[in-house]
């Protein structure tokens, strides 16, 4: 019950002054925005794992000579098919070569092939896809050729192409690139076709922008996100195709240690000496997994519709 | 004799081919626009109204030469522009600019506002120096009532209404004589819609712009425009001054369209004319008057003959056989 005094107090206050709302206690705990490497790993865990694994593989490939390896091609007939030990960390193969050294040097071939194919196939596919998307007269012919190439499984196509040439790392890269181009070209064409219908492209035409500038300013920058994602998947697929080619003897020349070659060498002994095949297989799986995780992470990160955690 | 109108469209026709099969054989045509003629004078606001798919956006895009016409002519300041090679046309594009419906897809997400607005200025060589360019950019931001620091930001940092202002600024950057507003406010909230409409009207007064306002929203059209063109299935069915059209519509379709506008007064008995059936397909438009399949007054003649657009009253044109014969009840 209000006493007259308190009513008087209230009336004495200036009429315009409203009492300030009391400070509310924080209902939510203060939000901590993670920054730096920790923030990145928290927001994009798949990409972080993929990047770490891939960086590890890159370091291994670059610093292979300094990681306690010996000459990967050095034969030691007296020390054939040794179990993993202090001398041969991953054992030795049928010619007494150190599997550890061979696997580490093999990372060079796999990564070189993976990255080279990803970059080459993306660039050539981007060119073909853009031309196809913009020049209607060529579209039908170009895309039918791409369909034709895509109807052949990439591994078969790569084997056929390798059969035409001498075994070398360059030829492996070229063969896999040709097999992967149609996928990129098709993706880019689709993106270009949808982008050129965008109102901002129409507005640019109305603003007097010439067609080459429209492609450079308004079309190509918007193809980069899907193209990057596709390139990582191609990188992983190229590594696997390289290993398959080498495994069946149609890829990297046997003198060069690549994961496929090492596995091919160990295949006759795999029931008695499984380590010759297991170690390169683990490295191959981990690397392809890393690349695919990176691709998945990129796809999510580059999609603006995906809400990002802070 | 008065000077040539700013924009004149003569017998504009656009058919889109539908390709099927392996060799892209043209199996059918979408009759998007059929023989549309009208003019827009300097500083005037003309509205094109009609339901979805009646070809009103195609009319605007064809004026912008985003595609070639099937038939007809587009004249700008008395000069034919629809048959010019792109190289010759490009400098003339400055005079006609466009604001699109969707404020999200009409700005390139990979360009900052500054680069979006500088594009037409650079293309048409409007700025004499980099200081002049900067001054123009700042003045554009002021014209569309956006803070100047928006220039350095990305499109995704803005709301729909703000993005539409950026779209208007881009259109203004070219210093046009005519802006085609293709459903420019349809995607916005009512309050934002009003702001953008007022902004357009202010700018029009300030800069003497002509507006070709393409819309399906009769309330907005009534507010902004001086002359109204009603389209149905790619043809103009009626064209009149705003007051005439709203007070005494001549064409049965216009009548039905106007009766669909809600009246915010419960005491007024609504005399809604409900049309039966759907809009016929523009792939196979009906014979004669395109509206005869849904017209409550249709006769045998309507099914056979295409009605011409005739002046039924001073400055009021309608394409209806019955207009002369039958006195349509005035609302």
How would you sum up this structure in a few lines?
By secondary structure, chain A is mostly helical. Helix content of chain A is 66%, strand content 0%. The two termini of chain A are 50 Å apart.
Keywords:
heterodimer; A: mainly alpha; MetI-like fold; flat; B: 331 residues; alpha/beta; eight-stranded mixed sheet; globular; disordered C terminus
In the sheet with the most strands of chain B, the strands line up as 6-7-8-3-9-10-12-11
Query: What fraction strand of chain B?
Result: 15-25%
Shape descriptor of chain B? globular
Question: What pattern of helices and strands is seen along the backbone of chain A?
Answer: HHHHHHHHHHH
The assembly state of the depicted protein chains is: heterodimer
CATH superfamily of chain A: MetI-like
Largest sheet of chain B: 8 strands, mixed
What is the makeup of the main sheet of chain A?
Answer: none
Secondary structure class of chain B reads: alpha/beta
Count the DSSP helices of chain B.
11
Order of helices and strands of chain B: EEEHEEHEHHHEHEHEEHHHEEH
Tell me what the structure shows:
The complex is a heterodimer of chains A (310) and B (331). By secondary structure, chain A is mostly helical. Chain A has one domain (51-64, 90-302): MetI-like fold, CATH 1.10.3720.10. Chain A is built from 11 helices and no strands. Chain A has helices at residues 4-12, 36-43, 45-62, 99-134, 136-151, 154-164, 169-195, 199-206, 211-247, 259-266, 275-302. The radius of gyration of chain A is 30 Å and the shape is flat. Chain A starts with a helix and ends in an 8-residue tail after the last helix. With 331 residues, chain B is of the alpha/beta class. Chain B has a domain at 228-331. Chain B is built from 11 helices and 12 strands. Chain B has an 8-stranded mixed beta sheet, sandwiched between helices. Chain B has a 4-stranded antiparallel beta sheet with strand order 2-1-4-5. In chain B, helix 3 runs parallel beside helix 5, helix 4 crosses helix 5 (160-173) and helix 5 runs parallel beside helix 6. The longest helix of chain B is centred in the middle third of the chain and has 18 residues, at 190-207. The relative contact order of chain B is 0.14. Mean pLDDT of chain B is 88; it is low at 326-331. At the A-B interface, helix 8 and helix 9 of A face strand 6, helix 3 and helix 5 of B.
């Amino acid at each position: 019950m209000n006493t007259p005094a308190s009513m008087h107090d209230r009336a004495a206050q200036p009429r315009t002054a409203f009492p300030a709302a009391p400070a509310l206690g924080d209902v939510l705990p203060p939000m901590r925005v993670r920054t730096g490497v920790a923030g990145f790993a928290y927001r994009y865990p798949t990409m972080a794992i993929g990047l770490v694994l891939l960086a590890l593989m890159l370091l291994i490939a670059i610093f292979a000579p300094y990681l306690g390896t010996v000459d990967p091609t050095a034969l030691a007939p007296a020390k054939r098919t040794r179990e993993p030990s202090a001398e041969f960390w991953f054992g030795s193969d049928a010619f007494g070569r150190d599997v550890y050294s061979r696997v580490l040097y093999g990372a060079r071939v796999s990564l070189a092939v993976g990255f080279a194919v990803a970059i080459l196939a993306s660039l050539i596919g981007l060119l073909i896809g853009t031309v196809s998307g913009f020049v209607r007269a060529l579209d039908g012919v170009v895309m039918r050729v791409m369909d034709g190439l895509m109807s052949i499984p990439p591994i078969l196509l790569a084997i056929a192409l390798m059969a035409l040439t001498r075994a070398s790392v360059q030829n492996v890269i070229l063969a896999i690139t040709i097999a992967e181009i149609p996928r990129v070209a098709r993706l880019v064409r689709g993106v270009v076709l949808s982008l050129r219908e965008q109102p901002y492209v129409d507005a640019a035409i109305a603003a007097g922008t010439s067609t080459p500038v429209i492609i450079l300013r308004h079309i190509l920058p918007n193809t980069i996100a899907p193209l990057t994602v596709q390139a990582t998947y191609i990188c992983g697929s190229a590594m696997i195709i390289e290993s398959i080619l080498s495994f069946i003897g149609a890829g990297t020349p046997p003198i060069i240690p690549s994961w496929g070659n090492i596995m091919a060498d160990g295949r006759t002994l795999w029931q008695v000496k499984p380590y010759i095949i297991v170690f390169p297989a683990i490295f191959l799986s981990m690397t392809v997994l890393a690349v695919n995780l990176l691709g998945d992470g990129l796809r999510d990160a580059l999609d603006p519709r995906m809400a990002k955690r802070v | 004799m008065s000077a040539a109108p700013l924009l004149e469209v003569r017998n504009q026709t656009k058919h889109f081919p539908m390709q099927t099969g392996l060799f892209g054989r043209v199996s059918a045509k979408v009759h998007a626009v059929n023989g549309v003629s009208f003019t827009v004078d300097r500083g005037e606001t003309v509205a094109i109204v009609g339901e979805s798919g009646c070809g009103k956006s195609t009319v605007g895009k064809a004026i912008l030469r985003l595609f070639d016409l099937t038939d007809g002519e587009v004249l700008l300041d008395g000069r034919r522009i629809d048959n010019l090679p792109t190289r010759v046309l490009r400098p003339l594009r400055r005079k006609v600019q466009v604001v699109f419906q969707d404020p999200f897809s009409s700005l390139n997400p990979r360009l900052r506002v500054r680069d979006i607005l500088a594009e037409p200025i650079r293309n048409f060589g409007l700025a004499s120096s980099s200081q002049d360019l900067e001054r123009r950019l700042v003045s554009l931001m002021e014209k569309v009532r956006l803070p100047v620091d928006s220039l350095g930001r990305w499109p995704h940092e803005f709301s729909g209404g703000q993005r539409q202002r950026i779209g208007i600024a881009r259109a203004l950057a070219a210093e046009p004589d005519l802006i085609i507003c293709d459903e420019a406010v349809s995607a916005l909230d009512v309050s934002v819609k009003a702001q953008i409409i007022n902004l357009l009207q202010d700018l029009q007064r300030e800069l003497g712009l002509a507006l070709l306002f393409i819309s399906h929203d009769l309330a907005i059209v009534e507010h902004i425009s001086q002359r109204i063109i009603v389209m149905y299935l790619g043809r103009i069915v009626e064209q009149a001054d705003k007051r005439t059209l709203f007070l005494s519509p001549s064409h049965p379709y216009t009548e039905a369209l106007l009766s669909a506008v809600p009246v915010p007064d419960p005491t007024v008995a609504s005399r809604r004319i409900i049309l039966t059936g759907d809009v016929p397909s523009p792939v196979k438009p009906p014979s004669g008057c395109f509206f005869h399949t849904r017209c409550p007054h249709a006769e045998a003649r309507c099914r056979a003959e295409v009605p011409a657009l005739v002046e039924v009253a001073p400055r009021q044109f309608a394409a209806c056989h019955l207009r002369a014969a039958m006195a349509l009840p005035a609302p």
